[in-house]
Amino acid sequence: MGIIPSALTIAGTDPTGGAGIQADLKSFQEREVYGMSVVTSVVAQNTFGVTDIHNLPVSFIEKQLDSVFSDIKPDAVKTGMIATVDMMELIAEVLKKQSVHYVIDPVMVAKSGDALMEEPSREVIRDVLLPLASVVTPNVPEAEILVDFTITSTEDAKKAAKVIVNQLGAQAAVVKGGHLTGEAIDVLYDKRDFHYFKSERTSTKHTHGTGCTFSAVITAELVKGKAVAEAVAIAKEFITDAIHYSLGIGKGNGPTNHWGHRLQGLPSIGGE
Ligand code: PXL
């Protein structure tokens, strides 16, 4: 680790600040890690959904990556929205040359249901990026695409996490249980053991950017030397507080509260 722990997010933007790069930087800051960002796509979106996406040229993403790596080498990298196959191939080439922790949030669709990447990218995430990953954090629909079977229970999620690690080549996989009915259990498989992370479900519509925030906290904790299971436990607690203390802003599905963890023990703010 450098003298100052640092992390880089490579992802798309959310001008309303709840998801994407903006959520990642807020999360790095809350975990006391110096945050940096390379933008892949500029997204016109708010708490209702995505209205347009402007993909930056791959050559320009490369220039941004060069700017960061030639100056402040991050201790960890996370990727979120990577819209095209060409962008993914560039990022894979860059990461192969660096020895850094790499966390993939395999973002495919936004919470609003809007597609955030072109269809063939799914195979490239699986075949090119996953083998480079320290941790991958799919939700159930994303895990189903990666493993090509249906997931309806925690047992299925365990099977999927094991396939993602043993067959697809990630070092560890957390399959998030939020989309399953009943108890929402996240399942981590880290090549040796399964770990389970449970929390009370909060009934709220303000969950925009939860996946970005969760994976950003894992990234920050890996920078600080935490083992994967410990990093995931911290991220789970952080996102539970961020949802519980959501701010009630936004006319649609609002953002979480990135400083919610500082409010533990206080009444919720009222973002129902
Ligand atoms: O959480 C997935 C995600 C990733 N990246 C961007 C997003 C979203 C969801 O809204 O907007 C830019």
What does this structure look like?
There is one protein chain. By secondary structure, this protein is α/β, with parallel strands linked by helices. The protein has one domain (6-258): UDP-N-acetylmuramoyl-L-alanine:D-glutamate ligase (3-Layer(aba) Sandwich), CATH 3.40.1190.20. Helix content is 35%, strand content 18%. It has eight helices and ten strands. It has helices at residues 20-30, 58-69, 85-96, 121-129, 140-147, 154-166, 210-223, 228-244; strands spanning 6-11, 34-39, 41-46, 49-55, 76-79, 101-104, 135-136, 173-175, 185-189, 194-198. The strands form three sheets. A five-stranded parallel beta sheet has the order 2-1-5-6-7, with helices on both faces. It has a three-stranded antiparallel beta sheet with strand order 8-9-10, sandwiched between helices. A two-stranded antiparallel ribbon has the order 3-4. Helix 4 links the parallel strand 6 (101-104) and strand 7. Helix 3 runs parallel beside helix 4, helix 5 packs across helix 6 (154-166) and helix 7 (210-223) runs antiparallel to helix 8 (228-244). The radius of gyration is 17 Å and the shape is globular. The protein starts with 5 loop residues before the first strand and ends in a 28-residue tail after the last helix. The relative contact order is 0.15. The structure holds 3-hydroxy-5-(hydroxymethyl)-2-methylisonicotinaldehyde (PXL). 3-hydroxy-5-(hydroxymethyl)-2-methylisonicotinaldehyde binds next to strand 3 and helix 7.
Instruction: State the distance separating the first and last CA atoms.
Output: 40 Å
Mean pLDDT: 94
Bin the helical content: 25-40%
Query: Using only CA atoms, what is the Rg?
Result: 17 Å
CATH class equals: Alpha Beta
Q: Can you tell me the overall shape?
A: globular
Largest sheet: 5 strands, parallel
Q: What is the number of beta strands?
A: 10
SS summary, helix count: 8
Order of adjacent strands in the largest pleated sheet: 2-1-5-6-7
- Global structural class: alpha/beta
CATH level-4 homologous superfamily: Ribokinase
Order of helices and strands: EHEEEHEHEHEHHEEEHH
Sequence stretches where pLDDT stays below 50 over 5 or more residues: none
